[in-house]
Amino acid sequence: MLRQKERIKEITGQSSLTKVDKDTGTKETQGKALLKEAEYTLYYKKDSSTHKAGDPVKWADNFKPELVKGIKKLGKNITLEIGEENQVAVKHLAINDYYWQETKSPEGYLIDQTRYDVSIKKVDDSKENAVITKNVVAKEQVIRFNFDFFKFTQSATGSASTGFNDLTFKVTPLDSTKPITGAKDTATTEYDPKLGFDGYGKFEQLPYGDYKLKEVEAPAGFQKITPLLIHSTFKEDKQDYSKSEYVFTITEKGQKEPIKTVKVPYEKMTNTHFSVQLNRLLLYDFPEEENALTSLATWKNNEKELTSLDNTELIDQLSYKLNKTQKWFVVSKAIDVEATKAAQKKDKEAEPVVIEETSKSLSNSEKTGTWTITHKLTTTQALTKQIVLFNYIYESEEAYKKGGGTCSC
Fold it and tell me: What is the pTM assigned to this prediction?
């Protein structure tokens, strides 16, 4: 039996709520969703003489609750924003039944409608039980989205098209979006027995975030689609947070206006509705265009005529229009015009007379652009020769050695 001095006069409760991602089970988020800025309010669970069930607990209530963790929001109610360690906590609660409920969900996560019960009950009068601690864990569901598509190849005249199977598409996270979790990052087209079409593919359960959709490889003789950029955005209503909305857009790379926009009200993103359907896309592969090169050569310092012998470098601005982006092998030849004419006068099949040749591997990040090629000529060549440049582009150095050029200018 405890002595009188060891007995306590007051029993109070303390409660904390820890917020985690439902799938990871930790503070680690998915996509570009955020756990910070979530807000939880503490409510009474049962009626009493001073309050009704569902009333929020107030800081000024008789037992004078105190903040332990979290960011205190304006107002009389105990409403806290998630703080360090993804927690909110209060102490000095009276013996009673309470529950935590989310009143503001963070970007990329659903509104958590779960009530997290907290029951503060007396155990005994010992010092060890003077403070009854009840901790709960809130598991937050990330918003996910789906979309499906049909992949068609179109004839050169545009008069016919058909679905194409066994083509692989890939989604890649952009910018601050984390690696994909809980979903596949590739989809392969196939026959859809329900709709009766070839070329069907789908992506499911992608976490809220920004992604690039690209065709891994196009059928022979066709161009890959222009990559599509998928963006997930939260548009907050500053006047009434419940009127905020999520906006999902799909835009062709290089374009400003989206080809598809889907808007979902914030208040509809609940535990029972966590997946957004972006609906179906129709994707087309068009026949490959022929590669083309255009040469614009000047002497150094952008001079059209050679005015100084201090530098006899010939600078060629080689513009290209190519049917794909990759590493190419470029060969540029400075041809002696008069010597070539003389040789071909004797033999129509004679090769051009090359006085200087340079070759290198060059990459293009876009299908159109410009490369700079420099020819270092001798003073004699520069002064006495009439020169023209021939440029050749090959799929690779190996193709060049085999004589498989793609175009020239």
Answer: 0.71
